[in-house]
Amino acid sequence: MVEQKFNGTSRPKPRWGGTRYVAKRRFCHFCADKVEVIDYKDPSKLRRYISDRGKIEPRHRTGTCARHQRALAVAIKRARHLALLPYVPEHIRKTGSVGD
Ligand SMILES: [Zn+2]
């Protein structure tokens, strides 16, 4: 017997209620700058693509195109490895500002 019960908590997904969420027109900064190779040695630039918790921001938040998002992810991982970017929020607090 297969009985699937959602213990009463099957809420409908929030759908950006009434107010349409209009983000700033998103475009890929790297495409705009015609960047072919993302410099992993430039944390101040990469910083914009990680959240305050040190996570790589998803594409829909930064507007980065698929191609550059992939390159970006690699660049950020390299930068992390070189301690140019944080892995975890704790590191952010310790170093204060990432960049320079
Ligand atoms: Zn792009």
Can you tag this structure with a few keywords?
100 residues; mainly alpha; 30s Ribosomal Protein S18; 35% helix; binds zinc ion
Structure characterization notes:
By secondary structure, the protein is an all-alpha fold. It has a domain at 29-95: Ribosomal protein S18 (30s Ribosomal Protein S18), CATH 4.10.640.10. Helices cover 35% and strands 0% of the residues. The protein contains 5 helices and no strands. The protein has helices at 29-32, 43-46, 59-62, 66-81, 89-95. The protein is extended and about 55 Å long. The model has no long low-confidence stretch (mean pLDDT 83). Bound molecules: zinc ion. Zinc ion is lined by residues 28, 30-31, 65, 67-68.
Quick description:
This protein has helices spanning 29-32, 43-46, 59-62, 66-81, 89-95. The chain is mainly alpha-helical.
